[in-house]
Description:
Shape: globular
Structural class: mainly alpha
CATH architecture: Orthogonal Bundle
Order of helices and strands: HHHHH
Largest sheet: none
Amino acid sequence: MDNLSHIEKVEILNQLKHVLYNDLEFDVAAEKTFKDADANCDNIVDKDELGVELKKLATVFGLPEPNKDTVEVILLKYDKDHDGKIDLKEWKLFFKNTLENFVKMAELHMHKA
């Protein structure tokens, strides 16, 4: 995101906020990302699939790639029914928290610039 102009950053931030705070847009985006993450189409995201998605997020956010322990901690945090997998309902919580954190980080970064 550092290569973008201030106007581009504001536009992306506004789009993320729109998805985050509009229930219909949020559901569509969460379901799409869930389907993308569910590589074997079994309607759950297992630990390996979550690891792949976390690596993608790390790349997008310019963060270090998560290790297996980090993936396990995140899985445990969002796996509310303790079946070792993330279903769509659990994914929506993960997705919401991820968007909220990104918006906060982006706003802080933009205020520093």
